[in-house]
Predict the structure.
Amino acid sequence: MTTDEEHIRPEGVDDLTVEALGSISEALEAIEIARGHLYALHRITGTADLTLGKGVQQLREAGHAELADRFERELVGRNVLYGRWTFQIVEEYDDGYYATFKRLEKEARDTLVEGKRHLYESEMKEDRRTRGRHGHERRPASGA
């Protein structure tokens, strides 16, 4: 059987280091989910603003110009946070917190375990799988 070298712990790396990198990786996964939710906020808020614009136009066409004007002045195109539309929030998050997290996580892996990813999970898989049983293979067959 060929080994999966990119998921084998480098010699001399202790358990606590692998656990620490596993925790950092788990935290990064949570940040990826948060980032996805932030992008969802961006998309949904943009859709809501466009739909609101349609509703405002319909109010105007139905003869409710004063109410339509109020919606248009106070809400259509409004910042969701002071000075920011959602695209600006996404960009600031991506360029600041997210980019820093990704950079430091990679730096830790590069420094401590030759850049290898998911060592903690790989070792957990080895521990939990039933060797020789279908559906419990170490890795996909060659070419799969």
Notes: The mean pLDDT is 93. The radius of gyration is 25 Å. The chain has one domain: 14-128. The longest helix spans residues 15-61.
